[in-house]
Amino acid sequence: GEEGPLKFDLVVEVRPEITIGNIEGIKVKRRAVEVGDKDVDDVLTRLQESRASFEKVERPSETDDQISLDLVPGAWEGQPDEGKVIEDQKFVLGAASNMPAFNENLVGVVAGDEKVVEVVYPDDHPNESLKGQSVSFTCQIKEVAAKVLPELTDELAGEVAGGKTMA
Predict the structure, then answer these.
(1) Structural contact between residues 113 and 144, judged by C-beta atoms closer than 8 angstroms
(2) Among 11, 54, 122, 152, which residue is least crowded by beta carbons within 10 Å?
(3) 44-81 pLDDT tens trace
(4) Cα–Cα distance, 106 to 39 (Å, whole number)
(5) Rounded distance, CA 87 to CA 89, Å?
(6) H or E element: which one contains 116?
């Protein structure tokens, strides 16, 4: 048995050469982007919101105010658990991230108030021990502060983007 020469096929991909024919007369449409006044207003509002500050006020709290408070979670048997004071919490009233009970019950409070807020945790709450439980929180109100939006001035524009004006 004499062996013959070894044979194999080699497949190599070769990119085809592309010749571009006449491209004159092909129309390219540019989409006009229209920016309306509302779009500009939306951006400016978001800008103001992002730079908002809170200033202490001596009036009952309203939606969008920031409330500073100490929270004393009630023990399950309804006894406040003084060992667990959660100090200096800040709530912006009406924020979607708050539990609805706080948004509903902390409207109209003033510094120095103590308000008990009953929170009923849903049955599908991620924390096992809280599922379906109702816990009352004693809220000791320390401060009510109103949201202050900065004025739309060139100064604000310059802070956001160096050297820019509102225009």
Answers:
(1) no
(2) 11
(3) 888 888 899 999 999 999 999 999 999 988 765 555 55
(4) 34
(5) 6
(6) strand 114-120
Nearest CA to 98 among 83, 117, 123?
117
First-to-last CA distance in the chain?
91
- DSSP 8-state symbol, 144: E
Q: What is the pLDDT of residue 80?
A: 54
Residue type, 1: G
* Residue 143 pLDDT: 97
Taking the whole predicted model, whether its pTM rises above 0.85 is answered as no
Output Rg (C-alpha) for the chain, integer angstroms.
32
Transcribe 44-96 into DSSP letters.
HHHHHHHT-EEEE-SS---TT-EEEEEEEEBPTTS-B-GGG-EEEEEEETT-T
Q: Is the CB of residue 119 less than 8 Å from the CB of residue 98?
A: no
What pLDDT score does 79 carry?
A: 56
